[in-house]
Amino acid sequence: MEFALADHHRMVQKMVRDFGASEVAPRIRELDRSQTFDRTILQKMGALGLLGLCVPERYGGAGSDYISLGLACEELEYVDTSLRVILSVHLGLNSLSLLAWGTEDQRRRFLVPQARGEKVAAYGLTEPAAGSDAVGIQATAVRDGRNYVLNGEKTWMSLADVADHFLIFAWTDPVKQKQRDHAGLSAFVLTRDMKGLATSTLHGKLGIRAGNTGTITMDEVRVSEDNRLGQDGEGFRIAMFALDQGRYTVASGATGLIRACLDASVRYAQERRAFGVPIGEHQLIKEMIARMSRDYEVSRLLYLRAGWMKNQGQRNTRETSLAKWYATVASEQAAGDAVEIHGAYGYSDEYPVERFYRNAKGAVIYEGTREIHTLLQADYALGYREDKPTRVTLPKWPFD
Ligand SMILES: Cc1cc2nc3c(=O)[nH]c(=O)nc-3n(C[C@H](O)[C@H](O)[C@H](O)COP(=O)(O)OP(=O)(O)OC[C@H]3O[C@@H](n4cnc5c(N)ncnc54)[C@H](O)[C@@H]3O)c2cc1C
Do the beta carbons of residue 348 and residue 296 sit within 8 Å? Predict the structure, then answer.
C-alpha cells in the first residue's frame, strides 16, 4: 500500500492551487455577491488542461490519472465550489461517460473538443418532477427513421446556460416507462445549435452563486441515432456510471471545502480573544477544530481510495458513494462550525465562511442526497446490493 502522492500528483496539485489563489480567490467574493459566472475562468481552466485532465492524450486530454482529478477538485473547491462544479459536470459526468461509452466517432466529435476546452459540456438527468427518482423522469425520445425526436424539460442543470454539449436522458420505450423499467431509458448527446433546444438560468440560489445552474427545454428536438450514447435502453446504466465519476469529484471537492473551513477557523481562533485568551484555547472551539481536522483526513482517504480503484479499472460505486456521503455531510458540519467560530463576523461576507456555509448545502443534495447515500450504504451492508463488474468501465490508468 502506498500513501504518498507521486511527483505528477504534486505538480497538478500545485498548478491548481496556484491558479485558484492567483486567478480566482481575489475576485470570488465579488463574483459570488453579483451572481456572475465568469467565462474567462473557464477559458483559463481550459488553457491549463484541466477540462481534459484525466482524458487520454489521443482524445485531446492531459492524460493524467483519476487521483489527479480528485486532487484538482480538492484544490478548486478550497477556493470556491463553483470552480469544482465545472470539473464535476464537464469532465466527471459528461466527458468520462463519453470516454467510456462513446463510439470512436462520438469521441472524435464531442470528447476531443471538450477535453481541449473548446466546448463545454453538461449533464441533464433531473427534471421538475423527478430528481432522486431517476426512473420518474418524463422526457421522451421517439424514433423516427434514423433519428429520434426529443421532448421534455431538464432542470437544476449545472452549466445549462454555458454549455455547448448536453448529455440527456429520455424514455425511448413507453411501455417500459409505464412499468418503471429503467431498460426503457436511453442517453443522447445534444448540441446547442439544435432546433427546438433552449436553455435558461435559475436565479436566487442559496449557494454556488458564482456558478451557472439552469434549465433546458426540448421541443421536438431532432437528434440523429449517431448521437445516442450506448445502445437503446442503456441510458440508466450510463446515468449511473456518470454519477460514479461525478460523485468522486463532489467527494474530493467537499474535502477541499473542509480544509478551507479548517484553515479559516484556525486563523481566526488564534486572532480573536475572549475571556482573556485566544478563542482557540477554549475547549469547545478546539472540539470543532478537531472535528474539521479529523473529517478532512477521513474524507481525503476515502476519495483517494476511490481514485486508486478507478486507476485500477475496478468498479467503485460503493466506495465512491461512501466518499461522497461522508465528505459532503462533514463539509456542511465544518462550514456551520466555521461560521460559529467566527461569531457574528462569520455571519457577514467579510469572511469567506458564510459563502462556504451556503455552498456546502448543495453538495449534500446533488448527485444523490444524503438520504439516498444512506440507503445505498445500508443496502450494501445488509447484502441487498452488490457491485458486480460491468461491461463498460473507465479505462485503466496509465492509458494505452
Ligand atoms: C446546485 C445544484 C446543481 C445541480 N446540478 C445538476 C446537474 O448538473 N444535473 C442534474 O441532472 N441534476 C442536477 N441537480 C439536481 C440534483 O441532482 C437533485 O436536486 C437531486 O438529485 C435531488 O432531487 P430533487 O431535488 O428532485 O429532490 P427529491 O428527489 O424530490 O427529494 C426530496 C427529499 O426527499 C428525499 N427522498 C427522496 N427519495 C427518498 C427515499 N427513497 N427515501 C428517503 N428519502 C427520500 C430526498 O433525500 C430529499 O430530502 C443539481 C442540484 C443543485 C441543487
Answer: no
